[in-house]
């Protein structure tokens, strides 16, 4: 008989409370994973731009040296090399702008991730409340012992917003 009641308990259809609990936990996990993945992808893109910048800088330095050599010799035309240096310089400027934009994006992304995870703390509170509700429903006596909180004290210096002010004449 005891084995059958255990099977019946485990074979229950999930209640809306259970579904909410799973939803809150799953959403929180996926959100954290998505934030981590977004940061990783953005950093990889920036690293790729950094590698491209190093290669482009090497090509630009090489072209500038070639131009300087040709200008000293005076025997070979410098127009082609000058055009190449100008092209590489323009590409370097565009790449630097892309890097700056990527760095700005990463900074904004980090702020968004912090704010998102701070807001997602509400999902943890929902999960806790659902867990307490399920425990209370399943075992009201045990739940009342574990979920008792000390009463919150209110500061005596604060007056309710709607309360009229008491003056010496009225008292």
Please describe what this structure looks like.
This protein has 171 residues and is an all-alpha fold. It has a single domain (15-140), classed as Orthogonal Bundle (Helix Hairpins), CATH 1.10.287. The chain has helices spanning 2-10, 16-73, 79-119, 121-138, 140-146. Helix 2 (16-73) packs antiparallel against helix 3, helix 2 packs antiparallel against helix 4 and helix 4 (121-138) crosses helix 5. The radius of gyration is 33 Å and the shape is rod-shaped. The N and C termini lie far apart (72 Å).
Helices and strands in order:
Elements: H1 2-10, H2 16-73, H3 79-119, H4 121-138, H5 140-146
How would you describe the oligomerization state of the chains in this entry? Answer: single chain
The count of β-strands is 0
CATH topology: Helix Hairpins
Main beta-sheet annotation: none
Give the DSSP E fraction (strand runs of 2 or more residues).
under 5%
The unreliable regions are: none
Topology as a string of helices (H) and strands (E): HHHHH
Number of domains as seen in the coordinates:
1
* First and last CA, distance: 72 Å
Silhouette: rod-shaped
Q: Helical element count?
A: 5
Share of helix, binned: over 70%
Class inferred from helices and paired strands: mainly alpha
